[in-house]
């Protein structure tokens, strides 16, 4: 008798995907349900290659080197993901919903020249070219664990600088209570922005000032000792390792300092499923799946999820009285 015993992660992921994509999409094609079905919890194309990681044909590009001293403070308790896995399996809906295709669809994108705008409650609104900004910052490498709300994990050597330095550079006034961040809008270069027209492009996210200036919040401009590839958010993105991946907005064009909690992209698309705070918490299930475990991409191993992704020592005081 032939009995296939699936690995733990295969069952729920398949349930989430196939049912939602094929049933919901056809039945209720309203904006919200179409988006929920295709959403970050939704579309994973069937097939072991997709679930395991990058496509076979994919090889990382030889991008210009960008190295920086490793900050020994940030350690991980697992081997790093291969560059191929972390750059060949992505979520980036501006390009495509197929995680193993983002590298290919995003390749022609031109992330330079790139202007970043600082506005809202700042001493003086200003704009700066990304490379000018990078020159003014001192770069370091940090090993961080990245945990998507869909339960996949990669462990990555990012190159960048603390977001706190960026906030200091922007000089917000005392009225600023949140920072709102916005990605690019270039439908001609990003086919997901042409095809997924029900999404409220451009992608937008937000943080409290305490979160943005926490030492873990990291502005990323490189990975694996090279400049950031398009598929991971070139030329500049943020990484917030204690929050689900959707908070770590890619290809940022604007920082706006505001008084009120800003709206966020995935919350607006599926309000019941993706909240503003999005702290990693094994005890708080997503409405459609448990968050108690997670799967390490490429290795396929399932491990327990940790509160704040294991970064409680840095951030728990932000949320606990
Ligand atoms: N602009 C933009 N930023 C984004 C996304 C996106 O679709 N668009 N996806 C988010 C999600 S859901 C995840 S898991 C991470 C993936 O980052 P990675 O490709 O570096 O692993 O990017 C986040 N940032
Ligand atoms: Mo994600």
Write a structural description:
With 321 residues, the protein is of the alpha+beta class. It has one domain: Sulfite Oxidase, Chain A, domain 2, CATH 3.90.420. Helices cover 24% and strands 20% of the residues. A hairpin with a 4-residue loop joins β3 and β4 (152-162). Residues 1-38 and 40-51 have low confidence and may be disordered. Bound molecules: the ligand Nc1nc2c(c(=O)[nH]1)N[C@H]1C(S)=C(S)[C@@H](COP(=O)(O)O)O[C@H]1N2 and molybdenum atom. The ligand Nc1nc2c(c(=O)[nH]1)N[C@H]1C(S)=C(S)[C@@H](COP(=O)(O)O)O[C@H]1N2 binds next to loops.
Number of domains: 1
Flag low-confidence runs.
1-38, 40-51
The name of the CATH superfamily reads Oxidoreductase, molybdopterin-binding domain
Beta-sheet strand percentage?
15-25%
Helical segment tally? 11
> Could you give a short account of the major beta sheet?
7 strands, mixed
List the helices and strands and how they pair.
Layout lengths: L9 H18 L3 H8 L9 H5 L30 H6 L13 H4 L9 E6 L5 E4 H6 L4 E8 L4 E11 H8 L7 E6 L7 H5 L8 E5 H4 L5 E6 L2 E2 L9 E3 L12 E7 L6 H5 L23 E4 L5 E3 L7 H8 L2
Parallel strand pairs: 1-10, 4-11
Antiparallel strand pairs: 1-2, 3-4, 4-7, 5-6, 5-10, 7-8, 7-9, 11-12
This protein binds the ligand Nc1nc2c(c(=O)[nH]1)N[C@H]1C(S)=C(S)[C@@H](COP(=O)(O)O)O[C@H]1N2 and molybdenum atom (MO).
């Amino acid at each position: 008798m032939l009995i296939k015993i699936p690995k733990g992660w295969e069952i729920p992921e398949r349930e989430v995907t196939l049912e939602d994509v094929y049933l919901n999409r056809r039945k209720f094609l309203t904006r919200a349900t179409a988006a929920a079905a295709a959403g970050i919890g939704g579309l994973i194309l069937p097939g072991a290659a997709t679930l395991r990681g990058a496509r076979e044909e994919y090889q990382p590009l030889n991008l210009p080197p960008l190295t920086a001293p490793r900050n020994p403070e940030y350690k991980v308790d697992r081997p790093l993901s291969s560059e191929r896995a972390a750059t060949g399996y992505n979520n980036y809906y501006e390009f495509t919903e197929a995680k193993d295709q983002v590298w290919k669809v995003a390749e022609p994108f031109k992330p330079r020249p790139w202007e970043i705008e600082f506005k809202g409650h700042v001493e003086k609104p200003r704009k700066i070219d990304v490379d000018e900004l990078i020159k003014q910052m001192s770069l370091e490498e940090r090993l961080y664990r990245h945990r998507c709300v869909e339960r996949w994990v990669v462990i990555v050597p990012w190159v960048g600088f603390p977001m706190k330095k960026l906030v200091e550079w922007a000089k917000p006034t005392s009225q600023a209570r949140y920072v709102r961040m916005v990605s690019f809008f270039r439908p001609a270069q990003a086919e997901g922005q042409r095809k997924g027209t029900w999404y409220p492009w451009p992608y937008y996210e937000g943080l409290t000032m305490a979160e943005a200036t926490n030492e873990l919040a990291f502005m990323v401009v490189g990975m694996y000792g090279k400049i950031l590839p398009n598929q991971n958010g070139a030329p500049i993105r943020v990484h917030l390792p204690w929050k689900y991946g959707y908070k770590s907005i890619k290809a940022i064009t604007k920082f706006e300092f505001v008084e009120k909690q800003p709206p966020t992209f995935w919350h607006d698309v599926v309000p019941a499923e993706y909240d503003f705070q999005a702290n990693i918490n094994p005890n708080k299930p997503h409405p459609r799946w448990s968050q108690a475990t997670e799967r390490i991409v490429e290795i396929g191993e399932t491990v327990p999820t940790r509160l704040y992704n294991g970064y409680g020592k840095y951030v728990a005081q932000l949320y606990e009285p």
